[in-house]
Amino acid sequence: MAKIQAIRGMNDILPDQTATWQYLEDKVRQVLDSYGYDQIRMPVVEQTELFRRSIGEVTDIVEKEMYTFADRNGDSLTLRPEGTAGCVRAAEEHGLLFNQTRRLWYTGPMFRHERPQKGRYRQFHQVGVECFGMDGPDIDAELLIMTARLWRSLGLAEHTRLEINSIGTPGSRQSFRDALVTYLSDYRDDLDEDSKRRLDTNPLRILDSKNPETQQILDQAPKLDDFLDEESKAHFESLRALLDAAGIEYIVNPRLVRGLDYYGKTVFEWITDSLGAQGTVCAGGRYDGLVEQLGGKSTPAVGFAMGLERLVLLLETLELVPDSVSGNPDIYVTAMGETAVKAAIALSEKLRDDLPGRAVMTHCGGGSFKSQMKKADRSGASVAVILGENEVNSGTVTLKPLRSSAPQQEVEMAEAAPLLTQWLDAQ
Questions:
Q1: C-beta separation of 199 from 185 below 8 A
Q2: Which bin fits 159, alpha (ψ -120 to 50), beta or left (φ > 0)?
Q3: What angle do CA 157, 159, 163 make, to 5 degrees?
Q4: Are 270 and 253 in contact, with CB atoms under 8 Å apart?
Q5: For residue 36, what pLDDT is reported?
Q6: In the beta sheet, which residues pair with residue 129?
Q7: What is the per-residue DSSP string for 230-292?
């Protein structure tokens, strides 16, 4: 019988990879906690209508990429392709937005049926941040300043750049859309295939085209900035002033738009060139109309999402994961003989009490002294704690460094924890 394998584009994250994931997730959590953001957790399955109404019927996500199915009751359900719509639904459903501001974040898997490639998968993981009830540019600036702090914490500040733009209100965007369609219609035959399709469905996305010929045509196209309303211009200028005051470097990219229908005013992307091709590692913007669009009261909102797979790949490529982030135990406790096994279990528990934050692995499964020491070495532990019948009878343990040439020492059991702390801290 053939073995069952994982679905293409939905990858296992194996034990030797999870330490890097945990390191990244811990850094993200620390930064978000330091700014007072609260975590929210939403289901991975939502009603399909939630995404149709929020993302937009003519986006690539809704048209081609969503995992949608009918459940046993005949309801149309969808594996979430992004987190913002679900966060808005949850916050509105549970009354979190009533006459108050909210700073929320979440993390978890998202699902899109697209061509898998390095750093982009059909099941992928994101951290999302959503802020509600604040309409000024100060919260936009906070998100960008906060993200810059995360890059510094991860050592990525020199490997990322910020691009920002304003896409205005729905009214100003519609005027620009009409002018853009009129201009590009004269060049329809010269556009790439994706742009031809988008010309009739989502023409603003043509600005994102990577096709050189299409980009050349866009050089003489109408500019979104010429159609911006005064409110959006003032908001954007204030945002720029706040970023300048905070020392955050950025590039104004007039062709930067977002692929989802709900965005307006501020949009931004953090981009890296350190993965070969240009890659977006974090993107977001304002979506002041989405809460009302989904049945709530008019509520200003802004947020972003960052892809964890791409950030993990970036950290590994640049070798920015500290050596201490290994996932290996610090101490490996061996035991020879039935009496020693009982003592080893008790000693391991005491070491976990006395050395909080240190990982202690207890050997299980028996075996000779030689085989146990081989397993201790393969575990990646820094120190082996050796217990045999003689040690148990004498109330001692033998401590053997595994990553240095220092000699092993036999010490009283009560002295084991202080000496282990000294050795491990010295590494």
A1: yes
A2: alpha
A3: 85
A4: no
A5: 98
A6: 105, 304
A7: HHHHHHHHHHHHHHHHHT---EE-TT---SSTT-EEEEEEEEESTTSS-EEEEEEEE-TTHHH
Tokens coding 414: 């009560």
Tens digits of per-residue pLDDT, 183-217?
A: 888 878 888 888 888 888 778 878 877 888 888 88
Cβ–Cβ contacts within 10 Å for residue 58, how many? Answer: 14
Is the sign of the CA dihedral 245, 251, 256, 260 positive or negative? Answer: negative
Q: How far is CA 90 from CA 32, 94, 100, 106, 296, in A?
A: 20, 6, 15, 12, 11
The closest of 389, 394, 388 to 413, measured between CA atoms, is: 394
CB 154, CB 306: distance < 8 Å: no
Q: Is 100 helix (H, G, I), strand (E, B) or coil?
A: coil
User: Hey, what amino acid is at 292?
Assistant: E
d(CA 324, CA 340): 30
Tokens of 117: 């490639």
End-to-end CA distance of the chain: 49
Residue among 341, 334, 395 at smallest CA distance from 361: 334
Angle 382-387-392 from CA coordinates, rounded to 5°: 145
* CA distances (Å), origin 7, targets 4, 11, 100, 283, 313: 9, 8, 43, 27, 21
Q: Which SS3 state, helix, strand or coil, does residue 32 take? A: helix
Which amino acid appears at position 363 of this protein?
A: H
List, for the chain, all residue ranges whose pLDDT scores fall below the cut of 70: 57-61, 63, 119, 259-261, 278
pLDDT at 284: 95
Specify the DSSP class assigned to residue 3.
Answer: P
Please give the pLDDT value at position 197. 82
- Are 340 and 387 spatial neighbours (Cβ–Cβ below 8 Å)? yes
Tell me the residue ranges of DSSP E strands in 296-335. 301-307, 331-335
For residue 223, the 8-state DSSP code is P
Distance CA 287, CA 221 (A): 26
How many contiguous H segments (helices) and E segments (strands) does the chain have? 15, 16
Which residues, 6 or more positions from 383, have their beta carbon under 8 angstroms from its beta carbon? 330, 331, 332, 399, 400, 401, 402, 420, 423, 424
Name the burial class of residue 214, with classes exposed (0-12), middle (13-18) and buried (19+) by CB atoms within 10 angstroms of its CB: buried
Alpha helices, DSSP H only, in 7-81?
Answer: 15-34, 48-55, 60
Cα 211 from chain centroid?
Answer: 28
- Of how many residues is the chain composed? 427
